[in-house]
Amino acid sequence: MSHLRLIVGLGNPGKAYADTRHNVGAGWVRRLASRYGIELKLDTKFKGEIGRGLIDGADVRLLIPATYMNNSGESVGLLVSFYKIPLEEVLVAYDELAFDIGVVKLKQGGGDAGHNGIKSVRAGCGNRGEFVRLRIGVGHPGDKSLVTGYLTRQTMPSAERAAVEAATDLDDALMADVVHLRWQDAMNVLHAVDSPGPDEET
Fold first, then answer.
1. CA dihedral in degrees (174, 121, 61, 178; nearest 10)?
2. What would the pLDDT profile of 99-145 be if each residue is shown by its tens digit?
3. What are the distances in angstroms from CA 59 to CA 4, 42, 103?
4. pTM of the predicted model, to two decimals?
5. DSSP H helical segments within 40-171, as ranges?
6. Which of 53, 115, 167, 181 is most solvent-facing, going by the fewest CB within 10 Å?
7. Active-site positions?
């Protein structure tokens, strides 16, 4: 039976970026690793930190690219190609400007919607976008010119960080739906607690 084989958390490497909004995807994967006892180790061959373990009985790899966000696809593409992982069995977690803090949504496939990390992942996977996305709301600074600093140079306030962690700490039943590809069931639960968001498919 098919199941999720790879969970990727996007972000920028280094302590300077660890607590920024752009790194919420990487932060989520680190918490998953801790929760399920999966050790992450840097693998230079795949340009990322990689771990492997069981989540609800499913054999899943975790990946945090060690590249900068805009080059995330180098790491993802190498791993997907080497292990011949179908993109439909890949979940990529990342920051979503279009959603408020505390809003988290799943999305199957699509374009990059202006997110450079997702653009790179698509490019690294042969310009294909069938992977599933976990879009973690970080809010918007209100002006496009402020976005870069807002995402990469500002440490998230503790209240925002707590809200993001609470929203992304999916309970066991929801994680089971996610890893066993029961996407509609997972969306029904996850999206029920969120206010409707814009359709930013491009």
1. 10
2. 999 999 999 999 999 999 999 999 999 999 999 999 999 999 999 99
3. 8, 19, 28
4. 0.94
5. 72-82, 116-124, 147-152, 158-168
6. 53
7. 22
